[in-house]
Fold this sequence. Notes:
- 3% of the residues lie in helices and 52% in strands.
- By secondary structure, the protein is an all-beta fold.
- The chain is globular.
- Residues 22-138 form the MD-2-related lipid-recognition domain.
Amino acid sequence: MLSTYSLVFVLFVALVIVDGQTFSNCGGASDQIKLKSLAISPYPIKVPGPATFTLDVDVSENIVNPLQTKYDLVATALGFPVKIKCENCVGSCTYDDWCKACPTCPCPVNAGNQKMVIAMNFTSSIPIGSKATVKAQIDFLSATGQTGCVLMPKIEVRK
């Protein structure tokens, strides 16, 4: 299984509603990777426990490796935001090569429509109490300057 926060790795073109959540592209219109649809099961995510993410991704051009991926994750519980630290490659981390961070994902990332099914196992080390909302922003930068960004402002997590 992938690390807890490898779930968020694609870029969103427009506003997408999934399971009552709002997702958006926080990069520019020229982003090369765009998420068309996303399903999370179970939702809300239960911690600890497994979750499956099914993504339909449109890639406008071949992405030149390595694809650096930077995660910024903030959990809000009881009204207090807490940045989820990078520990053992989980949390608000920067990965120098997406293909190493997501070994089950198609690599290299080629142009075209791709469906990705990613299974993950969430650990109990997420600082949430009994429930929390996690805000996730993921930024991408390829070896040749291809960029992208995804923002998920409200991911519901429960213990």
